[in-house]
Write a structure and sequence with these properties.
With 122 residues, the chain is mainly alpha-helical. The protein is 39% helix and 5% strand. The longest helix is centred in the C-terminal third of the chain and has 18 residues, at 86-103. It is rod-shaped and about 115 Å long. The termini are far apart. The mean pLDDT is 80. The structure holds zinc ion (ZN).
Length: 122
């Protein structure tokens, strides 16, 4: 690899004083004899890669389950129901989750309605 030689001193790292015979350390290369630009130029700053694509934690929008205390309780009652079919339970559970998502909680009338179905079937 070719090293660029300091142009000011010619590569010996020293420059002669114009007035006398004494030489001083080259102010350009600080005595190394190499061009300062060559030693630490061309740093590639464009190489910064975009950080790994890390998608934000996906928020599932699908029905998962009730999030409120009333909803959880209601879901438990529905699941424990002896009169409801598996289909009816699934439908009611979905209804609870849906109700929660639209109302933010389970309203009393909704709880009543679901409880009634859980106890009596239709
Ligand atoms: Zn020099």
């Amino acid at each position: 690899m070719e090293v660029e030689i300091c142009r000011m001193c010619g590569g010996d790292g020293r420059i002669g004083n114009a007035l006398g015979g004494s030489s001083a350390t080259c102010p350009s290369c600080h005595g190394s004899g190499r061009r300062a630009e060559a030693s630490y130029g061309f740093r590639d700053v464009t190489k910064t890669k975009p950080s790994h694509h890390r998608p934000a934690v996906a928020i599932s929008t699908g029905p998962k389950g009730p999030t409120t205390a009333e909803g959880t309780q209601l879901a438990a009652e529905v699941s424990a129901s002896a009169v409801l079919t598996a289909d009816a339970k699934a439908r009611l559970l979905a209804e609870i989750v849906n109700h929660e998502s639209t109302h933010g909680r389970c309203t009393k009338t909704f709880v009543k309605k679901v409880r009634k179905q859980a106890r009596l079937g239709k």
